[in-house]
Amino acid sequence: MSVGLLAVVDDILSAALKASAKTAGVVIDDAAVTPQYVQGLQPARELPVVGRIALGSLFNKFVIIIPLALLLSAFAPWVLPWLLVIGGTYLCFEGAEKVTEWFGVHHEAAGDAQPTTEPKLVFGAIRTDLILSTEIMLIALDSLDTGLGFWPKVGALALIGAGMTLLVYGAVALLVKVDDIGLQMMKHPVRRTRRAGARIVRAMPTVFRVISIVGTVAMLWVGGHLVIANLAETFWAGPYELLHVVEHAVEAAGPVVTWVVDTAVSAVFGLVLGMVVVGIVLGIGRLRGRQH
Fold first, then answer.
1. What is the pTM for the complete model shown?
2. What is the pLDDT of residue 113?
């Protein structure tokens, strides 16, 4: 019996490692997006907020995504592409909204702007995590061997969900506390250590600005790719076919160039789609403002 149990565990670990490799890109995006939500918080609140977001991410994966994905894949697999189109469109909207804010466009109605509270920050991060985690888990589910039994499949998905959450939010927690580490180094009696600490502290604002840009591009890339890929699974393959033509045109330059071009095209598509949604939302907001 113990041999049988070890065999099942080995199957679960092998399936989880194989499927996890295909989710790496989205995991990186998730890690790039999340630090934006703790910027501006008091240092003492950074780790508690990251912890709350991590718990929300686990809730997303284990209570919502995995059960729903298993049910839909078994009884209504046609629904999954539509859900990913909706989720991808929302990511494009969030990314485009941040881009317009870089150019001074504010989306709150006059007099309605309020300080963002910690619960709102956490809710916004968990909401974005729901979409990114959905893609991670659906990619993982699609990558699992079709001959894998139900419970080994559940075990592999649970292992992937827990491992990815630990990886992403462990990295985020370390990242947001790097400046505190630098401050402690500045108090060290060794001069070289103090200088290194000072460099770390000076560098962190630039690091977070870069992270903010990377996170925004990541949302546009992931959202655009989600919409392109899943529109092809629903009713319109045009964007996917165009992307395939572009990839074919540059594939002689190598896989790295092909990946960069694929990412750029997906991000541009996501930005255009997001701008359209932002325009609609702003238009509706102005109409409601006139009515009131």
1. 0.75
2. 46
